[in-house]
Amino acid sequence: MNQHQASLIGTLIVNPYKFIEIQDIVTPDMFIDEYKPIIELIFSYSRENKFWDKAIIQRQSQWTTKELLNVISYANANTLEDNARYIRQDYITEKGIELATEYITKAPDDNETAYHKLKTDLEGLYTVTRTEKDNKVEIFNQAVESILKSSKDEGIVGISTGWSDLDQMLGGWVDGNLIIIGARPSMGKTTIMLHHAMQASFMGYSVGVMSLEMTKQELISKMIASMAGVSVSRIRTGNLTEQDKENITEKGAELYEYPIHIQDFNLKARVTINTISDEVNYMVKRQGAQMILIDYLQLIDYSGNQNANYEVQNISRMLKRIAKNCNVPIIALAQLSRSIENRADKRPVMSDLRDSGSIEQDADIVIGLYRDEYYNPDSAAIGILEYAILKDRQGGIPFTLEREFNKGLYIEPNKVPF
Q1: Is 360 among the catalytic positions?
Q2: pLDDT averages per 10-residue partition of the chain, 418 residues
């Protein structure tokens, strides 16, 4: 048994989200036969943005429960990257010795030619074991292009949020970023999500929307009502004027032309992170989606047998990995903890993310929503939503924007109210 490899494999079985830390260090060829099929499976699942658990590993490896638990006993997340580097260096050393031995035993009379062949083979070994992290030219070129694009587009690196002041602060929704929008119920999370989805589609971006809470029809009705300036409640009760009906028909036809792809899920079905991953891949690769929005994070099932904190922690890390691998921004809604109701100031803070786990660490941007009128009917801020940036990984300081808010209504792009 190779303990470094056993520890790495055991750690990845228990903590799949840790794969991102070693994916650029090792390759399956570096592992002994005992572990090679498992690490190949892990790399294969990762390429497809799928995730594994102990049951999948045991089924694919045909290990007994005792064998599986033995490997897991070596798991140590603290030494994961060190083990990966040791495995890589051990592989390079072993292969280098093999090449040198072959050179010594089979060297022809022309020693100089044989030496140059050995040198070339050793350089080739190094090149093969190099990873994407080693490709400085490509990384630097991408960074320069991003900076130049920001300058050209008035500070916008990614997809516009629809609000020029927010774009200036965040640079838009950037590829590979995970954005969390958190709020208590009835604050307007879905309305805000659809606002950002519509704004992006109106500017020509293809957008994928996934809902684990509402049906396609409900989401489309909400968007049409928003564009037509008719409240959802009036549509629900049928209290519509002839002008309303005309506007709804016109805006429905208009919305149909925009590149918004919606996927809802059976509310009784178990929607796992692999289900989400498959759908993101389909939307990005088949439908050309350039941004993904998910409603909402806590409804995603990670494993079905872990506590809520552990599940959300893994889901947020996996969503970040999906965003990075698919190179699209992912906006995920999240429910805030009920404990917010027990304090005087109910404005959201980072600790209000229910079962937050590692959301603060995984998310590039965290946004909190608050409407004072929901808690205080006599509030001076009737019709105002506070849109608070609680975290910006790029170093921006926390700030809050105020927006005129008439729930379910939408006003023309790039205007402050919505």
Answers
A1: no
A2: 89 86 87 90 84 84 86 89 88 75 60 58 54 48 51 66 87 92 89 91 92 88 84 78 88 89 79 85 90 89 57 78 90 87 87 66 90 88 89 81 66 38
Question: What sign results for the dihedral spanned by CA atoms 178, 174, 227, 406?
Answer: positive
- Catalytic: which of 21, 34, 40, 213? 213
Torsion over CA: 59, 61, 66, 71 (sign): negative
Q: Residue 249 CA to chain centroid, in angstroms? A: 35
Cα 306 to Cα 313: distance, rounded to the nearest angstrom: 11
- Output the six-digit token pair for 19: 């794969």
Q: Cα(105)–Cα(101) distance, rounded to whole angstroms?
A: 6
CB atoms under 10 Å from CB of 362, counted, come to: 23
Q: Are 26 and 84 in contact (CB under 8 A)?
A: yes
SS3 155: coil
Per-residue confidence (pLDDT) for residue 92, from 0 to 100: 80
CA 91 → CA 31, 32, 74, 81, 97, distances in Å? 8, 10, 20, 15, 10
